[in-house]
Amino acid sequence: MKRFALLGNPNSGKTTLFNSLTGSTAHVGNWPGVTVDKKEGTYKKLGEPINIIDLPGIYSLSPYTPEEIISRNYILDEKPDCVINIVDATNLERNLYLTTQALEIDVPIVVALNMSDVVRKQGDKINAQELSEKLGVPVVEISALKVENLDSLMETAFKASNNVRKGQSIIEDKNLSHLVNDIVIAFKGKGVDNPLFHAIKLVELDEIEVKMHPDLVQMVEEFKASFHDEVFDNDFEAIIADARYNYISKHYSITYEHHQEVEEDGSQKKEKLTKSDRIDKVLTHRIWGIPIFLVIMFLVFHFTFSEDFLFLGAFGKLFGNPDGLNITNPGVINFFTGMGYEGEALEGIPSLGVFLQSWMGWVTGSIIDLFDSFMPGGQWYTSLLLDGLLAGLDAVLSFIPQILLLFFFIAILEDSGYMSRVAFILDRAFRKFGLSGKAFIPMLTGFGCSVPAIMATRTLEDEREKNRTIRLMTCFSCGAKAPIWTLLAMVGTWIGWGGDLFVYSIYIGGIAAAVVYAIFMKLFSRDQYVSPFIMELPAYHLPQARNVIALLWEKLKHYVIKAGTIIAASTIVIWFLKSFGWEDGAFRFLMFSEEIMEEGVGTGEFEWVLHIENSLLSYIGRGLSYVYYPLGWAQGADGWKYTVSTFTGLIAKEDVVATMGELGLDESTIALNAAGVYSFALYNLFTFPCFAAIGAAYGEQKGKEFWLTLAWWLIMSYGAAFVVYWVGMLYIVAIWAGILVTLALIGLVVGAGVMVNIRQKRHLQNEA
Questions:
Q1: Which pLDDT value is given to residue 727?
Q2: Which residues contact 355 (CB under 8 A, 6 or more apart)?
Q3: Of 46, 85, 318, 586, which has the maximum CB count within 10 A?
Q4: What is the pLDDT of residue 396?
């Protein structure tokens, strides 16, 4: 089977093209040794199936990031039959920089001019035939979003793959060309494939090439000694980069014809703002940008977690009806609540997320009831299946609809181009406190999974900024923690808020906490460096259904696989620890048949009861609870259950809810007040992530910095939970005292922020 690799810049439409070509055949794994996504799929419309490999989005083939190294090594070592270079036609000059590097490799190449429909809509034109002649490779105009001309692209790539192609260079400087040719000859003598690419990279003193061919570095060093450039001196990497852009501007950019409108007097009209520019004037406004972001995120959580959609019940009470909407029809109530509502009336209509979760809970609950109807009571294997495996999976799987709906909204925001603006907005707002938007990019990735987010910190060139970013990563709630917030959101009566507001406060509060923690990190650090932040903002466009569905499918598959393996295994372990222990002087299964009592009188009926208070798990949990007693949720008869649940989250964060379900903690049995609920939530938000994320942090830091990160996660989570619980208790006991302490804490943060801002300004003035 032939293999075609997709190569292109971020936001060039490469992933959209991949999804359009591969459809349901696509699957995602990891590149060997790293956590960067490896996407593969099959294109089936040609005479033979074609394996499509979606390489990571990169700007060059230099070894600056793991993604660039992966793409480079794949093309050089795996030798795909053809490289399809996706070029954003609306940003031709910048995108062709990567093309000039790929052209130096001995591999068939086809350039796909993506977003050609946008170019035409702007009234512009690209002479694809002329560009093809200048590049020396086929050029095909396409629109991956609208699925235009993709079959023609693949047919062209198939033809190109049948021909041998030698790399070509765009370097025009005679002296540099002479040096490159000498090194090419040396590489050919050593039998090295792709000698032109390796030669140019060695001239740039590329890190990989220097390590691989130290014997040839002397040729470059001797040449550098006699070479001088008025602008770049003897920095060959900068000289070659400048040569690439000059060549692109001189030879390739002229193929792009801009449409020019003229006024009636013959003068040229002022360039009109694009639709994206007009939208950005609102969404990235220096004052309204962050409030708009907060409103958008609130709507996402409201549609996903609210028990009172659009606050219809609250408005009903406001306008005189103490029972809100007061829906009493049993059929309507059962429809909205998944057959599970026990009250007499509904005060409000649940949101779509709560509606779907209710029915999913009914499905999983019905499955458990079905097995319970024919399994023999009092047997250890019955308990293992019902109280262990099925109860644990039910606690996790019943939240699938809400989690998928949450990721559906986030996927829309990402695919439309808005999430890129969020990083820009945050950079502009927080740079004055010594925080960079460049660090926020991996943090925002943490909303999906902490593992790739931690790996993404490799793009931060300053080691201290990288360490700070990794330590703040747990402030951004990963998808695996969503079941925890979903469960606690249903305990809204203790919080006094709606479930949507609770979850909203966790996500937004996490971002705010990251800023607060970062301010104090800066306050007690002599480091005032803030990395520069340059980011391409893609044009706004309607999200493609194929992309959104593909993302949701990957999330669902990952979630179900984890539930069927890691979580299932851990629930069995938890079941054993909770079901066996010492009673009556013997180690035994702790389930007994006991008579049902009503007001102290037996009814003659019996039920199977688990004496969990004597279990191995209870002894472990009670021992650990003393450590967490000051946080509120470890107090009381059920305190040990919360403690054990937080520890199982080290395996996988979904295990927190699975363990709580096995121990009988659900929305109807969690007896924590508002302070306790928030304390438990914040501890699980900020504390150690799963073992996989801890491993990723170890791979990025190691040594003293890694152990400092672990200490920071523990102190940050414990401290936040402690403060929130006791300040919350102050509000419950004496609201005026809670307000005074809150104002004092706010004053402390503001004061620290002002001091950091002053130091940052002085640093910038000294640099200037």
A1: 94
A2: 336, 338
A3: 85
A4: 73
Q: Give the DSSP letter of residue 23.
A: G
As a dihedral over the C-alpha atoms of residue 39, residue 43, residue 44, residue 45, rounded to 10 degrees, the angle is 160
Give dist(CA 408, CA 414) in Å, integer.
10
- What is the side-by-side order of every strand in the sheet holding 50-54? 27-30, 37-43, 50-54, 2-8, 82-88, 109-114, 139-141
Nearest to 60 by CA among 111, 99, 117, 23: 99
| DSSP bridge partners of 39 | 28, 54
CA distance 541 to 238: 35
Long-range contacts of 606-611 (CB under 8 A, 24+ apart): 608/377, 608/378, 610/383, 610/387, 610/578, 610/579, 611/581, 611/583
* 3-state SS track over 295-353: HHHHHHHHHHHCCCHHHHHHHHHHCCCCCCCCECCHHHHHHHHCCCCCCCCECCCCCHH
Strand 109-114, strand 82-88: pairing:
parallel
Q: What share of the chain is helix, strand, coil (3-state, %, to 5)?
A: 60, 10, 30
- Where do we find the tokens 């499509």? 52
Angle between helices 703-733 and 463-471 (to 10 degrees): 40
Q: What number of residues does the chain have?
A: 768
Question: Who's near 212: CB < 8 A, 6+ residues apart?
Answer: none
Q: Across 458-511, where does the E strand assignment appear?
A: none
- Closest by Cα among 180, 134, 128 to 149: 128
Chunked in runs of 10, what are the mean pLDDT values of the chain (768 residues)?
A: 91 85 67 62 89 89 80 92 94 90 95 90 87 94 90 94 91 81 88 91 87 84 72 75 88 80 54 75 86 88 81 74 76 77 72 85 86 84 84 77 84 82 75 67 74 72 81 87 86 60 88 87 71 66 78 77 75 84 80 70 70 83 89 89 87 82 83 90 91 81 88 93 94 89 92 82 65
Give the residue carrying structure tokens 């306050």: 523
Classify burial at 98, counting beta carbons within 10 Å of its beta carbon; exposed 0-12, middle 13-18, buried 19 or more: buried
Q: How far apart are CA 520 and CA 435, in angstroms?
A: 12
Report yes or no: 483 and 403 within 8 Å, Cβ to Cβ.
Answer: yes
Question: What is the model's pLDDT at position 699?
Answer: 79
Q: What is the DSSP string of 164-226?
A: ----------HHHHHHHHHHHHHHHHTT-SSHHHHHHHHHTT-HHHHHH-GGGHHHHHHHHHT
pLDDT at 99: 94
Q: Is the pTM of this model over 0.90?
A: no
pLDDT at 340: 62
Q: Give dist(CA 718, CA 716) in Å, integer.
A: 6
Give the SS3 label for residue 449: coil
Yes or no: say if 551 and 403 are a contact pair by the CB < 8 Å rule.
no
Nearest CA among 332, 334, 354, 331 for reference residue 342: 334
Strand partners, 262: 268
Helix (H, G, I), strand (E, B) or coil at 119: helix
Nearest to 682 by CA among 519, 407, 477: 477
Q: What tokens does 281 get?
A: 């004037």
Cα–Cα dist 392/657, whole Å: 8
Contacts of 234 (CB under 8 A, 6+ apart): 224, 227, 228
Distances (CA, A) of 650 to 147, 153, 686: 44, 47, 12
Write the CB contacts of 596 (distance below 8 Å, at least 6 apart in sequence): 602, 603, 605, 606, 607
